[in-house]
């Protein structure tokens, strides 16, 4: 890969940096810092109150379970879809690629409503039949997992696809010419090449899954200690004038997401741009 040559710094360079830093500060850093400030303005009381509230702890547990399921599903299907898009020529590939980005462009509320129409127990297309065999999707954990997996689906794929395109197929073809099977080629050649893209996509998917709100609110039913995730608890606590618990729960969600991103950033090789 061609090395990047440093451009000479001019007054315009510093102006652009100042604009970017100011934009990020006003849009991201300052609002998040205010949440942290509100969480700890009374010491650890807000965190202590939140962590001893069964409504909050049950919601956090459900959120983690849902996020892990969604990430696992998106990891498997993200790899399969990425390989399909990059390694195979077929009619409709462009349409499939466009559909992958649909969760990023459509409102999560629409996603939740669509899932209800498909899997709702009363009026859903498949819901009544699924409930007849004992599987409740809407207003239950499976529905929350589906909604979360839907909104976070593109994040794994959009990290892997560019790396697959960059590494090409030479090493995979060489392995196959030496007698390696499809699984051996994937496990020993392809997967090591995309490992950091996969890890970064998984972390982004996890962070997105932890913070999903709109689709989950529609499809979960928002029942405390049953189908209420952490983001829904934040809304409820804030509306019930329990701002301390709302700030503390928001802080915990942000802390997990930021910690995951920081760990991956630290572990990721600085000069590793091709996944090796």
Total strand segments: 0
Number of helices: 13
What share of the residues does DSSP label as strand, in percent? under 5%
**Rg over C-alpha atoms, rounded to the nearest angstrom:** 22 Å
Specify the overall morphology: globular
**End-to-end Cα distance:** 12 Å
Main beta-sheet strand count, sense and barrel state:
none
Give me the strand/helix succession. HHHHHHHHHHHHH
Low-confidence stretches: 272-276
What is the helix content? over 70%
- The structure class reads mainly alpha
Mean pLDDT: 88
Keyphrases for this structure?
disordered C terminus; 276 residues; mainly alpha; 13 helices; globular; single chain
Q: What would your notes on this structure say?
A:
The chain has 276 residues and is mostly helical. It is built from 13 helices and no strands. It has helices at 11-40, 45-51, 54-87, 93-100, 102-105, 108-119, 127-132, 141-167, 170-177, 182-210, 214-220, 230-239, 243-267. Helix 3 packs antiparallel against helix 10. Residues 272-276 have low confidence and may be disordered.
Q: Can you summarize this structure?
A:
This protein has 276 residues and is an all-alpha fold. 75% of the residues lie in helices and 0% in strands. The chain has helices at 11-40, 45-51, 54-87, 93-100, 102-105, 108-119, 127-132, 141-167, 170-177, 182-210, 214-220, 230-239, 243-267.
Write the layout of secondary structure elements.
Elements: H1 11-40, H2 45-51, H3 54-87, H4 93-100, H5 102-105, H6 108-119, H7 127-132, H8 141-167, H9 170-177, H10 182-210, H11 214-220, H12 230-239, H13 243-267
Helix pairs in contact: 1-13, 2-13, 3-8, 3-10, 3-12, 6-8, 6-11, 8-10, 8-11, 9-10, 10-13, 12-13
Subunit structure: The complex is composed of two ATP-binding proteins (CysA), two transmembrane proteins (CysT and CysW) and a solute-binding protein (CysP).
Function: Part of the ABC transporter complex CysAWTP (TC 3.A.1.6.1) involved in sulfate/thiosulfate import. Probably responsible for the translocation of the substrate across the membrane.
Domain ABC transmembrane type-1: 60-268
């Amino acid at each position: 890969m061609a090395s990047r040559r440093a451009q000479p710094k001019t007054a315009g360079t510093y102006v652009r940096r100042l604009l970017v830093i100011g934009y990020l500060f006003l849009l991201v850093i300052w609002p998040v810092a205010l949440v942290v400030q509100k969480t700890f303005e009374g010491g650890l009381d807000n965190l202590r109150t939140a962590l001893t509230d069964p409504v909050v702890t049950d919601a956090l547990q459900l959120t983690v379970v849902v996020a892990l399921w969604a990430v696992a599903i998106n990891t498997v299907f993200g790899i399969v879809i990425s390989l399909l898009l990059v390694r195979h020529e077929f009619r409709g590939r462009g349409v499939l690629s466009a559909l992958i980005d649909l969760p990023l462009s459509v409102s999560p509320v629409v996603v939740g409503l669509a899932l209800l129409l498909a899997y709702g127990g009363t009026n859903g297309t498949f819901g009544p039949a699924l409930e007849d065999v004992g599987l409740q999707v809407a207003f239950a954990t499976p529905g929350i997992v589906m909604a979360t997996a839907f909104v976070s689906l593109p994040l794994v794929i959009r990290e892997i696809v560019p790396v697959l395109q960059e590494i090409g197929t030479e090493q995979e073809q060489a392995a196959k010419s030496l007698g390696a099977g499809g699984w051996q080629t994937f496990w020993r050649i392809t997967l090591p090449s995309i490992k950091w893209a996969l890890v970064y996509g998984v972390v982004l998917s996890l962070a997105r899954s932890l913070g999903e709100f709109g689709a989950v609110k529609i499809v979960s039913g928002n029942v405390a200690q049953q189908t209420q995730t952490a983001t829904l608890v934040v809304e409820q606590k804030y509306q019930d004038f329990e701002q301390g618990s709302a700030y503390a729960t928001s802080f915990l969600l942000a802390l997990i997401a930021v910690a995951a991103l920081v760990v991956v950033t630290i572990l990721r090789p600085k000069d590793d741009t091709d996944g090796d």
